[in-house]
Amino acid sequence: MVAFFKLVLFPLVVSIVLLAGLGSTLNPQLSTSLILFSAAPMITVYPIIGSNFGYATFCSATLVVTTVLSLITLSCVLLLI
Fold this sequence. Notes:
Layout: H1 2-20, H2 28-39, H3 46-51, H4 56-80
Helix pairs in contact: 1-2, 1-4
């Protein structure tokens, strides 16, 4: 669920917001980098932050899954851009 929201839904929402009007005021390279950054996997401190709340194992596993799946989603985003 976390991987789907981070790797699919978040780049989709960013793209929709940029196409809805905000993207017209931005540099095209900045818009492209915003979409690419939103499609990237989570930062590596995610398990560290999760360990403060007792979710270290869940967050570590989620980070590994999102990193592996980002190979597919980043390729798709680059193909669409």
